[in-house]
Structure formats: structure tokens, C-alpha cells
Amino acid sequence: QVQLVESGGGLVQAGGSLRLSCAASGSIFSSNNMGWYRQAPGKEREFVARIFSGGTTNYADSVKGRFTISRDNAKNTVYLQMNSLKPEDTGVYYCNLRMGGNYWGSGTLVTVSS
Asked: Is there a contact between 67 and 85 (Cβ–Cβ < 8 Å)?
């Protein structure tokens, strides 16, 4: 059984920074990719960033240059460093693991005040 636990959300002023973490536990295969999605109030969940086991990264255009995704394979943990935060970055951030199946964390709330 795979579990994903996010942490690091909170309230921050526009222009500030936050670092999200997601720790995966259970039967984790070395070949996987991990990512972050977010869901703003009243909107659908959207892709934010993804990192593959070899280190390749993808970002949504809206966060390029501001967010950085990284991972620690030894700890099965993925991070999302978010800088220059904007009010439109507000939402619940979900960790995602693709490893055969698709696994989700329960989310962590990020609120950016103007």
C-alpha cells in the first residue's frame, strides 16, 4: 500500500515563499515520477510540476521561473519550492505519484494574501 503525506502549506503574503514536501511510503519502485497539482476554490485540479526518476522536470507555464521541483530518491520525497508567490497560487496542493497506478496525497492548503 502506498501513502503520500504532504506538508509545508500555510498562509503567506504575495511575493513570499513556501516549500512543500511530500513523503511517499510503502512499496515504492525506483522507476516512478512524482508531481504536484493544485486546486483553487471553484476550479478544477490543475498540473503544477512533475519530476521523473532520472531528474527531468516539467512545469506549468504559470509557475515557470518561480517554482522548483526536486526529489530525494533515498527518502522517496519530492519537494516544491515556491517563490514569488501570487494570490492566484492559492489552493490545495496535492502530491501525485505515478508508478503503474496513480496515487494521491490528501493535500495541503496554500493561501497567498495580497
From this structure: no
Copy the grid coordinates of residue 6: 504532504
For residue 46, pLDDT beyond 80:
yes
Q: Quote the CA–CA distance of 15 and 85 in Å, as a whole number.
A: 5
Positive or negative CA dihedral for 43, 35, 25, 12? negative
Say yes or no to pLDDT of 29 above 80: no
Tell me the pLDDT tens digit for each residue of 5-28: 999 999 999 999 999 999 999 887
Cell of 114: 495580497
Burial of 17 (0-12, 13-18, 19+ CB in 10 A): exposed
Contact 39/47 with Cβ under 8 angstroms?
A: no
